[in-house]
Request: fold
Amino acid sequence: MAIKDILTIVDMSGSQPAAKYALDLAAANDAHVTGLALAFEPVVPAFAAAPMPVDYLQAAHEQAVAAAKDAQGAFEELARLAGVKSGSRLADVLTGGPLEGVMQHCRTTDLVVIGQTNPDSPEPMRELLIETLLFESGVPVLLVPYIGTKESTAKSALIGWDGSTTATRAVHAALPMLEKADKITVLVIDKGNSSGGQPGAEIATYLARHNLDVTIDVVTNPQTGIADTLLNYVSDNGNDLVVMGGYGHSRMREFLFGGATREILATMTVPVLMAH
Reply:
């Protein structure tokens, strides 16, 4: 399936690495990209001794909307300079509240692009937003490092493969990007519980039938955890895109990620395409 419709969550400030990546990706795929800016409404504490002044609430609302409109304007200027088909929207979010309103914007697109949490300039609810997008949007999510990227066309893609449903969905979602890569590596991290055969052979064969040049690399009994093994591999081999499944080990509404997924999102230095 081609990528023809992209939605990106616009950062409130900064150099907009996710928006830039989304626009470059749209240009490479003749796709439309929508920038979604979020206005974070303040929370009114239920335990407050007295009602919050109306003028305070109004001022806070206006400030949130103004900040979102500034971000929306920044995206629109980037889109104008990129010369791609684009549009922009604004959505209200109650700080700390549900994100269903945001999810409704994301479900009718091919791909959601969002920036990694920036520890030096944190965005409201960014970590929760990423987790909710992955688990609740129903579409693949591409996370862009806060340090930015040199270009949006991946030349050396790495697939973190474990044969799972989530990894399978991620590979299918990434096909339009993988087709443009010069090199694709299927990385299998084998902790010694392989069921036999060549790990990763079936997904490599599938990709080869799409005329993709694929190499399988197996790391057996790694001395570090899965996240560190994968990230070290990326660093050593110069990969510029990671494709992998996203895992959640909790059925509760907090959408707690598995340890490896959370570590990768926190420390990644290249874009990561995930599906659940």
